[in-house]
Amino acid sequence: GASGAAAPRLTRKQWRNKQKNKRRQEKLKAEKNAGGGGGTAQAAPEPSAPAAGPTGRSAALRARMEERLLAARFRYINERLYTGSSRDAVELFQSDPEAFQIYHRGFAQQVGRWPQNPVDRIIQRLRQRSASLVVADFGCGDCKIASSVRNKVHCFDLVPLSPLVTVCDMAEVPLADESVDIAVFCLALMGTNLQEILEEANRVLKQGGTLMVAEVASRFEDLRAFMNAMAQLGFRSVNKDLSSTFFYLLEFTKAGPPRRRPCTGLRLLPCLYKRR
Ligand code: SAH
């Protein structure tokens, strides 16, 4: 057309990029006017205050810095949980109660990026079984399992995110021997004393009871060695779901008590998160 003669004709791709840049500019302008909140709620400026005053920008900067600090603290706490024993974890959270909130917030953000949350898979599995079976949830977090199934669920964690939690170290839970039908560790095999923790699960499980483990796939350096160690601990593998690239879902039956000897293959790599 004659009207378009002055401007060079753009290819479809160039046109799309131009539109994208225009949208980006508009968004930046809008954010600047709103004090750069980028989606977070900001108090409306006083009518007399300049629209894009330094307070708005420094508040946004402070929010960003706080976010990065929280992320760094999450990575630090997470690393300590994976590289210390479960008793160190008890101490960590006792000495710094805020650490737990920070850890759980970061944990939820991480798992929220995955296509599926393993806890939902475990809930699915539990619903396929009788609701009369007694469950123990080791490292229960926010107790999603207990609030999603009709079974009696004993919830254990270091700090109570929910009133359903019994606060304890999972290496030593207040349950009688052979008192539960299903023991669950959903992303909770954290301490370096894994053998002790799994022996505790064996102790409270009834003979023939089920152990469900969901763990980050990349933690398994040598799955075969891990499965051998589990067999030594009295757990016979009955189901292995390795289909997710994020987590493995393993199911075992308690075949008997642990055979007492060090299980070297039990080692899992710590799950450390990269700085973003
Ligand atoms: N199972 C939950 C939470 C997983 S995060 C879910 O899948 O959503 C791991 C949890 O294990 C955290 O809540 C952490 O506090 C808990 N945990 C770590 N070490 C523990 C220990 N020694 N004793 C009890 N809980 C522990």
TrEMBL record:
One Pfam family from the record: Methyltransf_8
Gene Ontology annotations for the cellular component aspect, listed alphabetically: chromatin silencing complex; nucleolus; rDNA heterochromatin
Disordered: region residues: 1-59
InterPro entries for this protein: RRP8, RRP8_N, SAM-dependent_MTases_sf
Biased composition range(s): Basic residues: 10-26
Molecular function terms from GO: methyltransferase activity
E.C. code: 2.1.1.-
Signal sequence annotation: none
GO BP terms in the entry: cellular response to glucose starvation; methylation; rDNA heterochromatin formation; regulation of transcription by glucose; rRNA processing
Compositionally skewed regions (Low complexity) per UniProt: 41-59
Major location category of this protein: nucleus
Keyword set, alphabetical order: Chromatin regulator, Methyltransferase, Nucleus, Repressor, rRNA processing, S-adenosyl-L-methionine, Transcription, Transcription regulation, Transferase
Class of this enzyme: transferase
Family named by the database record: Belongs to the methyltransferase superfamily. RRP8 family.
Assembly with partners or alone: Component of the eNoSC complex, composed of SIRT1, SUV39H1 and RRP8.
Official protein name in the record: Ribosomal RNA-processing protein 8
Organism encoding this protein: Pavo cristatus (Indian peafowl)
Organism ancestry: Eukaryota, Metazoa, Chordata, Craniata, Vertebrata
